[in-house]
Specification:
Layout: H1 2-25, E1 41-54, H2 56-61, E2 65-77, E3 80-91, H3 95-102, E4 110-112, E5 115-127, E6 134-149, E7 152-154, E8 158-160, E9 165-179, E10 184-200, E11 218-232
Antiparallel strand pairs: 1-2, 1-11, 2-3, 3-5, 4-7, 5-6, 6-9, 7-8, 9-10, 10-11
């Protein structure tokens, strides 16, 4: 699932670049202009996949998630947008594999373990060719995140918890945006999200029956592949 989602995301980015470039070659010059320059503000919503990456137990035993994002921004100069962003993602635990890691061989199932992360950030988006209808861009976000987890339980046997964590979030991203009309646009992007922490310890949710030594916390890292729509005015 994680490999398929990654392949799909990068294929989508490539198709947008190739398809829109082909459209511009066959269009009159005036139709290939991107009408973003006269606009000042924009709003956007985005949806896509979020792949757990690090630490290893988070990558191995939590499934890919859908991520939602929304925000708005202002065009400072033709090639630079400054934006405010909000994102939300929840990763479900792989209960079958987790049961073997916990070491329990009884009948009851492993339940819970949903990890949820919300971020609030500001970003700078650098647009490669402001006057073109198709625009590759690079973006860098800095902000704040909070992560919490539901307990993992085996009915009548155990209930493991993980401490909430929060801190600074950094997220470099690359993408491509395409003007659908003078005020509407679509985009696709890939981002690498680094959440700084010494307390993110999903391994605490997988301690065996009777408890054990708490795991050492680490930074939370996940990758996202998103598509979005943008209204400029």
């Amino acid at each position: 699932m994680k490999r398929a989602l990654t392949t799909f995301g990068f294929s989508l980015l490539g198709c947008m670049l190739v398809g829109s470039a082909h459209a511009q070659v066959g269009s009159p010059p005036e139709e290939a202009k991107y009408f973003r320059i006269p606009t000042k503000f924009h709003l956007f919503v985005e949806l896509g996949g979020s792949l757990p990456t690090s630490p290893g137990v988070y990558n191995d035993l939590w499934n890919s998630a859908f991520q939602f994002g929304a925000g708005g921004g202002v065009n400072v100069i033709s090639w630079l947008d400054v934006c405010a962003n909000f994102t939300y993602a929840s990763w479900e635990n792989n209960s079958t594999d987790s049961k073997s890691v916990i070491g329990y061989v009884g009948v009851p199932d492993v339940e819970g373990g949903l990890i949820t992360t919300m971020t609030i950030s500001g970003s700078a988006r650098f647009v490669a060719v402001p006057s073109a209808r198709t625009n590759p861009y690079a973006e860098f976000s800095v902000g704040y995140y909070t992560t919490s987890a539901d307990p993992i339980t085996i009915e009548g046997v155990l209930e493991n918890t993980m401490e909430d964590c929060s801190g600074m979030m950094l997220a470099p991203a690359v993408g491509v945006q395409y003007a659908l009309a003078d005020s509407w646009g679509a985009y696709a992007k890939y981002s690498y999200v680094y959440c700084s922490s010494s307390e993110f310890a999903p391994g605490d949710l997988l301690l065996p029956e009777g408890g054990g030594e708490p795991t050492e916390g680490d930074n939370q890292i996940f990758q996202t592949i998103l598509v979005g729509i943008m209204l400029r005015f």
